[in-house]
Amino acid sequence: MFTSFFYTMKSNGLDISTTEWLTLMEALDKGLANSSFTDFYYLCRTIFVKNEGDYDKLDAAFLEYFKNIKEDKINMDKINQWLHNGSDLEAKMTNPELFQDTRTKKEAKEVHRMFRERLAEQHTEHNGGKYWIGTGGGSFFGKNGRNSGGIQLGDKAGMKTAFAVMGERRYKDFRRDKKLTMRQFQVALRELRQYSRKLDLPKTELDIDGTIDSTCNRGGYLKLEFEQPRKNTVKLMLLFDSGGSMYPYSEMCNELFQAVHKANHFKDVKTFYFHNCIYAKLYKTPECVSGDWIDTTWAFKNYDKEYKVIIVGDAGMAEEEYLDKNGNYSGPNNGLSGHEWMQLFKKKYPHCVWLNPSFHGDLSKMYWMKSENMIKEIVDMYPLSVDGLKRAIKKLMLDR
């Protein structure tokens, strides 16, 4: 049963085992879905979703597989116009459980039936009155009316069908293969705080664990314990590929830049720019203006090898540009190819990762992307996604 649905979920990235699939079949056999499509959706979510990153994958699978199922859908765009509200509205159908103090459950269900009946009959907006869906008035349905126990339109949605939940795709931001946002950058970068170490300073910071142990050992008599303060010693260097094919990713790069510079858990942060590949100059601004730069060799001398380096770029350039000593079209290269500069850079900064917003998994058939493959051989490259950044940070932590 639903074998093709199993493969649809798999194709959308859900890691489903045979045991989990059989669990769903057993649950259906026992009638746990209650012959309800919405209950079936939540049953699948209970069984198959293992972390927050799976929510959107399940929603996408449902939309793909069950897209032809007829649904009893409320046209909220039409109602939105009637209610003169420029924001996106959703129907908040009051839960029958909430009618306890003013109406019985039976009466509440009757109000729901009447609402759908009015919606089928009504073709224009209505304000005031006691019958139609509209604003004000004494009708059971609408906005800013004066009839308690009816159906309020607006605010947050209440009793939704499964399709309504999936149609929103509210969990897209939790996907781990999704391109990153400012918030996700900030969360991932916090993991670099683990590089902090104890300093040779007086013990002035309260040691909670030590205090608990000492107090317990003294039969409950409080004994405060202190330890040396911790200070983060992480030094971070950010390098952004700017211009050309990176223009579509400029907003994402700006979010990473902002996330890093708003963080207060780095000892030092240096930010530079390049075009396509690192050469003899590192630019100070994303415009990569000639002369507004520092020598890459100067950086080698003044920024020690303890800097953790994150390079952001699509690694997209012609093979001859990457390999030829005259292949740099945006500035001097001091007689070295991009490939040689990358080797020198990695030798100087061993704690180095590359985040690629257009990461390609299999480049065997993409001869025009050989530069990406060759850079991967020098620097560990990851997709610029939630999972990619987490793996990159983990690599930097293992390299310490």
TrEMBL record:
It holds the Pfam family VWA_CoxE. It comes from the Bacteria. InterPro entries: Uncharacterised_CoxE. PANTHER family: BLL5662 PROTEIN-RELATED, BLL6692 PROTEIN. This is VWA domain-containing protein. It comes from Eubacterium segne. The lineage of its organism: Bacteria, Bacillati, Bacillota, Clostridia, Eubacteriales.
